[in-house]
Design brief:
Helix content is 44%, strand content 14%. The chain is α/β, with parallel strands linked by helices and 366 residues long. It has a four-stranded mixed β-sheet with strand order 9-1-10-11, covered by helices on one side. α5 packs parallel to α7 (159-169). It is globular.
Amino acid sequence: MIRRSDINDILEGVLDGRKPDLNDCIRMLNSEYVQLLCLVADVLRKKRFGNTVTFVNNLIFNYTNVCVTYCKFCAFYRPPGHDETYTVSIEDGLRRVVLARDMFGITQVLMQGGHNPSLTIEYYESMFRGIKQKCPEVGIHGLSASEIDTIAKVERSSTREVLARLNDAGLDSLPGAGAEILDDEVKEKISPLKIKSDEWLRIMEEAHKLGLKASATMMYGHVETIEQRAQTLMKIIELQKKTGGFMAFIPWSFEPNNTQLQAEGIATHSAGGLTLLKMIAISRIMLDGLIDHIQSSWLTNGIGMAQLALQCGADDFGGTLHGEEVVTATGARSTTVNAEKVIGAVKQIGMQVAERDNFYRIIRYH
């Protein structure tokens, strides 16, 4: 079957241990042989992880929706002065984390928000120190590269100094938000006021060199081309070869509802389930041996598609996501899922499920 496809040489080479290049990636993205891509990606996953799928029990803490970058793909932000803006106080933030730890047993808090120019670095330092004091077992996975850039501008400081101070205060790792597609032509269309591609890569490299691990992400399915998707993957690969700082990769589908891109008629529908499975499979094929973990991207595609993704190269379900507000703002679906639902979803497809911590270390098997 592989021999009859238009990508047989790539897939046979991958199974023999050859690393695909940019042209291979473009050819796979253009291929209609999605089932074959998924089969090969599943072989690679099984070699590395066997029949085990991991997930993290976590709280999503969207600490502010005040934002001055006005990204056209975002339904969550509100400009300064809007009557729907909010910023969570340090006291309330700590209360939420402690409550989630006590009620759900979370081992990670994912802290992300808008680019709020009224927040100084002391806000984040106080929040992180408070979390570590009250919940030392909870990993802080927080602040995108673009949020780090905003804090640096507020402080008139370097991004490296901001990262170092936040690391000292308790920050453990960075999420990959802000990458979207690492091409400035795309960024000019969807987020012209946010950091450029090279700045995202530079801040991530600074974080890695300080010992901060990170996730890498790709938001696809809006205005980008196939070639720009492939080039994004290659840029992440190049940085990973240099630093080894990425723990996981998460490709996720753009949700157009309630966004400016939808209102302007630029991107009116999501990429769909078949594209998700292709992106998961190609991510495993391209990143295998470089970035260990591929997440199922259930948040924008639902639990049913996540179950399929786990058979197409993904090894990690992702998080339980108590409290998520960003994707919820698109009205796409309910985005609160507890550990029992994750465990049940994985067991339904005959796989073993293990709970992990912020650094992908297994805590317990279920």
